[in-house]
Design goal:
The complex is a heterodimer of chains A (about 625) and B (about 150). Chain A has about 625 residues and is of the alpha/beta class. Chain A has 3 domains: about 250 residues, FAD/NAD(P)-binding domain, CATH 3.50.50; about 120 residues, Alpha-Beta Complex (Flavocytochrome C3, Chain A, domain 1); about 140 residues, Fumarate reductase/succinate dehydrogenase flavoprotein-like, C-terminal domain (Methane Monooxygenase Hydroxylase, Chain G, domain 1), CATH 1.20.58. Helices cover about 35% and strands about 15% of the residues of chain A. Chain A contains 16 helices and 19 strands. In chain A, strands 1, 2, 5, 6, 7, 8 and 15 form a 7-stranded mixed sheet that branches. Chain A has a 4-stranded antiparallel sheet with strand order 14-9-18-19. In chain A, a hairpin with a 5-residue loop joins strand 7 and strand 8. The longest helix of chain A has 26 residues. The N and C termini of chain A lie far apart (about 60 Å). Chain B is mainly β and about 150 residues long. Chain B has a domain of about 70 residues: 2-Layer Sandwich (Alpha-Beta Plaits), CATH 3.30.70.20. Chain B is built from 2 helices and 7 strands; from the N terminus they run βαββαββββ. The chains are: A alpha/beta (about 625), B mainly beta (about 150). At the A-B interface, helix 1, helix 3, helix 4, helix 9 and helix 10 of A face strand 5, strand 6 and strand 7 of B.
Chain lengths: ~625, ~150
């Protein structure tokens, strides 16, 4: 491999490798140590665990808390809520499992020092809504990271994991992972008995509304680069509900949160002419999805749908009516601190445009689609459920183990369990880690073996963009246009354009159909081939190159799944123009896919949705 | 509001480089001070702004949609346990907010290894660390398998 053959290789051995140090990864690392006192537990993080993942900026609410100790909600209630919101299709076993444990995590956060708001009358946690509690969460992530750092044998920051490794002889068994240090450029080979993927979901696979300097102000973090999906997909793990991308209704340009505004401040929406509009679209929506429109609360996607239809009817912009609530100084403070606590950029937008919600009702808009497993959506890997309540065909091994032996996941990685949010992702990390410890203990001396041939091959592949650039740049005088390589940003822009135009992005009003998807797949395949010709000027660009790889793999998965489900399940998230209605007769089921790395083909099938809660 | 760095305040310490979740704060090789190398991948999370000991980093709203003349400044004080904000509108309006960030000393969280080690059946039941104590409801809820229905 010439120019880069002298790059140092660092081997790290562990019993349990946690990939990604966000909320799920911190939960996994903590719990792995509790049960695995003598195990070597390693957490590897692309950035710095103190401020990494989607909670890096902080949060002003914890969106999943039962309040069982005060009799507020029971886990079954949360399953019903998530099921309604996703129009019937959730893994109830996984959701129940998270809901029954989540309170103990939140209570631990409080013990660790997370400032919780309290209702002055009841002394309970201050409710924002039925499931949400309010926190002063500027340091939510550093606090949780401190717990993980105390628990881990080692935390490796600034290492981008690019691929999982499988066992030398058992192809369906995980054996570790490889990646590179973004600072030193060293090549890392992590050899592990169990791997827990806790990486991030996908922003920036669809073209965002701002495409200049503001393209980074996506709703979901720009560093969430779909590693949650690409890593398992590439070793043949089955994925589920990858078509179930999410679109968010948020404050315009900053994508600032609306939850506290709706639920706590009791602000509401209206069209440009001051009219309530959601009820106007109820019958229209009923014609598409039937009785699901009558669920309470109205499913997230259907509220998006009403907003989109109202805008198409020419009565936009839609605004949040804040002027009344913000006359109350306490509510005004909550409204601003809510932004500063988790989306500072929205405060900047309002300050720059002189939007004071006390005097001006701010505009709302819908975001481009994102792929996640933790919000009001449930894309991700198909995982084994809890032993005591998962239906038989949802159980083939340890809790949260994927269809690859020894490969576990949590947070955005695991599909079918919507409405985890920060606390649920942390909880799921804990659940996965306890199972992973049992997996390791049960194996005894039987340990996987990595293939030297495999990691040496990957070493060459991983650094290829540096070589492509170093060689190709000599062909041209200067600048960004080369006949022999693509820069990562150029590839990203092509991906976002393909997904936007062919797979239901904002430019297509979220509409797609079979001919569009077919063409989209052809273009994605050419893009995937072109990724062999990415050029990276430095290690930062090499990180961007591998983030793009992960995004492209996830995008192909999303597109195949979208093609497979011949109905419009979630109007407001996306529309199949050729199958415009929800079809419960044929599609009250999960979609499953598996990528065969030998043949490069995708196989799709369905799996039943079992309702274990009435 | 991608971040930028004031030339006269930055001393090149690299705290921002160390913390940036997006890996976009780097040290300029010529000036030996920090800069944002990729503003279009900045989430405006303010991690670098908060981490800067010199208060050398600020943000200017994204050129695509933010008119000039505003500022959102932050001071995060771990010793006092607070984060303080000053918002200045383009029209000069100012708003100030202060919030707590932590109720316990930094570094005070116990390792899970400092608790009694779990034994026996607890490995195979459904309870996680600190349960049922931290659930604060007696015992972990379970579903009755006999009551399961499928369709």
């Amino acid at each position: 491999m010439g120019l880069f053959s002298r790059r140092k290789t660092v081997f790290v051995d562990s019993d349990i490798l946690v990939i990604g140090g966000g909320m799920a990864g911190c939960g996994a690392t903590y719990e792995a140590r509790y049960w695995g006192r003598d195990l070597k537990i390693v957490c590897v993080e692309k950035a710095n665990i103190e401020r990494s993942g989607a909670v890096a900026q902080g949060l002003y609410a914890i969106n999943t808390y039962m309040g069982m100790r005060w009799g507020e909600n029971q886990p079954e209630d949360h399953v019903r809520y998530a099921r309604n919101d996703l129009l019937g299709l959730v893994r109830e076993d996984l959701g129940y499992d998270i809901a029954r444990h989540v309170d103990s995590c939140v209570h631990k956060f409080e013990e660790w020092g997370l400032p919780m708001m309290r209702d002055p009358e009841t002394g309970r946690y201050q409710r924002e809504g039925k499931w949400q509690i309010m926190i002063h969460g500027e340091s939510y992530k550093p606090i949780v990271a401190e717990a993980a750092c105390k628990a881990a044998t080692e935390v490796y920051n600034r290492i981008m994991v690019t691929h999982l490794l499988t066992d030398k002889t058992a192809a369906n068994r995980v054996a570790g992972a490889v990646g590179f240090n973004v600072r030193t450029g060293d090549f890392y080979v992590f050899r592990a008995t169990a791997v827990i993927v806790c990486a991030g979901g996908a922003s920036h696979i669809y073209k965002p509304r701002a495409v200049g300097e503001g393209m980074g102000r996506t709703w979901y973090a720009p560093w969430s680069s779909a590693s949650a999906y690409a890593l398992p997909i590439l070793v043949g793990a089955k994925m589920t509900q990858m078509e179930n991308r999410i679109v968010l209704t948020r404050f315009k340009d900053g994508y600032g949160p609306v939850g506290a505004y709706f639920l706590h401040l009791k602000t509401y929406t209206e069209n440009a002419y001051g009219e309530e509009y959601e009820s106007r679209w109820t019958e229209h929506t009923r014609n598409l999805v039937g009785d699901y429109v009558d669920k309470h609360p109205v499913p997230t996607c259907l509220r998006n749908h009403a907003l989109l239809e109202e805008q198409k009817a020419g009565r936009g912009p839609i605004r949040m009516v804040t002027k009344e609530a913000f006359q109350d100084p306490h509510k005004e403070t909550v409204g601003w601190e809510n932004l500063l606590g988790m989306t500072i950029g929205q405060a900047v937008v309002w300050a720059s445009q002189n939007i004071d919600p006390k005097h001006t009702n701010p505009e709302l808009t819908t975001s481009e689609p994102y792929v996640m497993g933790s919000h009001a959506t449930c894309s991700g890997a198909w995982a084994s459920g809890p032993e005591d309540c998962a239906p038989d065909d949802y159980q083939w091994g340890y809790n949260r183990m994927m269809t690859v032996d020894g490969l576990f996941g949590a947070g955005d990685t695991i599909g079918g369990a919507a409405h985890k949010f920060s606390s649920g992702s942390f909880t799921e990390g804990r659940i996965a880690a306890k199972a992973a410890v049992n997996y390791v203990n049960d194996l005894g001396r039987d340990r996987p073996v990595v293939s030297e041939t495999e990691y040496q091959r990957l070493k060459k592949v991983i650094y290829q963009p540096l070589e492509n650039y170093a060689v190709g740049r000599n062909e041209i005088v200067a600048g960004t246009v080369s006949p022999s390589y693509l820069l990562p940003m150029q590839g990203l822009q092509r991906l976002e354009k393909i997904m936007d135009e062919y797979v239901g992005g904002i430019g297509a009003n979220y509409i797609t159909n079979e001919p569009l998807l077919t063409r989209g797949l052809e273009l994605l395949e050419m893009l995937r081939e072109d990724l062999d010709h990415l050029g990276a000027e430095d290690l930062h660009q090499l990180q961007r190159a591998w983030e793009l790889h992960h995004r492209v793999v996830a995008s192909e998965s999303v597109t195949h799944h979208t093609m497979f489900r011949t109905e419009t399940r979630w109007p407001g998230y996306y529309y199949r123009g050729d199958y415009p209605k929800l079809n419960d007769t044929d599609w009250h089921c999960f979609t499953l896919s598996r990528f065969d790395r030998e043949s490069g083909t995708w196989e799709l099938e369905t799996a039943p949705v079992h309702h274990i809660i009435d | 509001m991608p971040t930028f760095v004031y030339m006269t305040r930055c001393d090149g310490c690299g705290h921002c480089v160390d913390i940036c979740p997006s890996d976009i704060m780097h040290i300029d090789p010529k000036y030996r001070r920090a800069l944002n190398i990729e503003p279009s991948m900045c989430w405006e999370c303010y991690s670098c702004v908060k981490a800067c000991p010199q208060n050398a980093i600020d943000a200017r709203g994204y050129a695509d949609f933010a008119p000039l003349g505003h500022s959102v400044r932050v001071l995060r004080e771990e010793g006092k346990g607070t984060v303080s904000w000053k918002i200045k509108f383009r029209d000069g309006t100012e708003k100030d907010f202060v919030s707590p960030i932590r109720t316990t000393p930094w570094g005070s969280i116990k390792s899970p290894a400092d608790y009694d080690a779990p034994t026996g059946d607890s490995f195979t039941d459904q309870q996680l660390a600190h349960e049922p104590e931290f659930l604060k409801v007696g015992e972990l809820p379970t579903l009755d398998p006999a009551g399961q229905e499928t369709d």
